[in-house]
């Protein structure tokens, strides 16, 4: 799909604009800027901070594939504008809709729309971003997702991976092999529990980290497709072996069995993230791992226990995507789940919230001593970048990915 389900579905439902909120004092905000929790020390009050001071704050932007398709001239101008606005981190897509955004993958075909611009666009873009001092993270947008089609009735493919290995297809409670979202179409994914699926995801992501000079790995969709997945044969067998319970659609009417299944789903994904982290450590020692994640009230439904990933050291930095106006309670609830507030940032939608609200959310994240912010997504952010510089980003900050030693090439 052209736009991420995570990012848009809840915005479409919940993004009721609250209108402009009071402009805050930039220096006050900077003083309380939250940072790693360890580096947030004494920034003196009521002074303009010199750029050389080690203010550390992740200020990221997800670059959507639709941004990439606009071409090099657009992207260079965007990098310059983001740099001038004192942003410091880019999340570049490497895996979406069953395609990778670089040539020569052993696991998935290259995005044909990228090839129309330049088949080596990604390596060029990372180089240009590094010249400007950005931290560049590999954004694995689709996670276990393998394919999207507007119409599964006329398009029989499940993507290159599942066309070869259909037994890995994730299945919902009614036996459907896809997630159908009427506005956008049909989404296929691999079973996140099956070790064979996990091996493919690990191989794919570590391949990208080896062939492209990224500074960090940014996970996305590290979860089940939705609350009604996965009921594949592998999951039924493993759930029975692990718990003694049967896995079928009647589980939703049995509170005890349902609670067991929800805990089991979280444990499966957490174990996978641990495996992935070990593989990243082998492929690129010292590389931080970050993740775009669901917020507090959705973790059971998605099987996504990112607070546990942080506690176990599998993840360095989590960014709950809280994409609507007036989201403070959800931001606070999500941040409260993290072992340290500096280990969590806020995903803010520049596509769905007015600029005044976006600035307010940045200030709120700082007031709560969170590690930074990440914006969805490049094109709408550019329209408010100058405003955000004036309001909340008057001076540069060091990029941050949950570790103090995050290095930028
Ligand atoms: Zn399954």
Q: What would you note in describing this structure?
A:
The protein is α/β, with parallel strands linked by helices. It has one domain: Alpha-Beta Barrel (TIM Barrel). The chain has 16 helices and 13 strands. The chain has an 8-stranded parallel beta sheet. It has a 3-stranded antiparallel beta sheet with strand order 6-8-7. A two-stranded antiparallel ribbon has the order 3-4. Strand 7 and strand 8 form a beta hairpin. The longest helix is centred in the middle third of the chain and has 29 residues. The two termini are 32 Å apart. The N terminus is likely disordered. It binds zinc ion. Zinc ion (ZN) binds next to helix 9.
Descriptive keywords:
409 residues; alpha/beta; TIM Barrel; eight-stranded parallel sheet; three-stranded antiparallel sheet; 13% strand; globular; disordered N terminus; binds zinc ion
* Strand and helix order: HHEHHEEEHHEEHEEHEHHEHHEHEHEHH
Residue share in β-strands: 5-15%
The CATH fourth-level homologous superfamily: Glycosidases
The CATH architecture can be given as Alpha-Beta Barrel
């Amino acid at each position: 799909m052209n736009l991420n389900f995570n990012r848009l579905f809840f915005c479409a439902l919940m993004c009721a604009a609250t209108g402009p909120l009071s402009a805050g004092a930039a220096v006050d905000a900077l003083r309380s800027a939250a940072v790693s929790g360890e580096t947030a020390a004494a920034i003196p009050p009521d002074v303009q901070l010199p750029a050389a001071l080690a203010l550390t704050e992740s200020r990221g932007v997800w670059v959507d594939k639709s941004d990439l398709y606009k071409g090099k001239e657009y992207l260079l101008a965007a990098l310059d504008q983001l740099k001038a606005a004192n942003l410091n981190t880019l999340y570049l897509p490497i895996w979406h809709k069953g395609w990778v955004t670089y040539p020569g993958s052993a696991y998935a075909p290259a995005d044909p729309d990228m090839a129309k611009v330049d088949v080596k666009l990604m390596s060029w873009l990372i180089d240009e971003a590094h010249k400007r001092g950005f931290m560049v993270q590999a954004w694995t947008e689709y996670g276990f997702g393998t394919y999207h089609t507007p119409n599964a009735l006329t398009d029989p493919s499940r993507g290159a991976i599942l066309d070869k290995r259909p037994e890995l297809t994730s299945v919902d409670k009614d036996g459907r092999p896809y997630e159908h979202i009427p506005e956008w179409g049909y989404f296929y994914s691999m079973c996140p529990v099956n070790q064979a699926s996990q091996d493919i995801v690990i191989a794919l992501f570590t391949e990208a980290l080896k062939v492209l000079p990224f500074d960090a790995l940014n996970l996305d969709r590290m979860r089940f497709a939705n609350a009604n997945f996965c009921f594949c044969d592998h999951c039924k067998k493993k759930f029975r072996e692990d718990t003694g319970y049967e896995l079928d659609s009647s589980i939703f009417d049995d509170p005890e069995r349902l609670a067991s299944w929800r805990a089991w789903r979280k444990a499966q994904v957490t174990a996978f993230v641990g495996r992935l982290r070990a593989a990243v450590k082998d492929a690129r020692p010292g590389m931080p791992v970050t993740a775009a994640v669901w917020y507090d009230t959705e973790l059971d439904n998605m099987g996504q226990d990112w607070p546990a990933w942080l506690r176990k050291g599998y993840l360095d930095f989590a960014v709950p995507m809280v994409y609507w106006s007036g989201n403070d309670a959800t931001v606070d609830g999500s941040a409260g789940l993290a072992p340290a507030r500096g280990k969590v940032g806020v995903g803010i939608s520049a596509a769905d919230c007015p600029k005044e609200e976006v600035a307010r959310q940045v200030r709120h994240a700082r007031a709560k001593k969170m590690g930074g912010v990440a914006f969805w997504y490049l094109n709408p952010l550019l329209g408010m970048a100058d405003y955000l510089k004036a309001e909340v980003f008057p001076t540069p900050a060091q990029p941050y990915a949950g570790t103090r030693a995050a290095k930028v090439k």
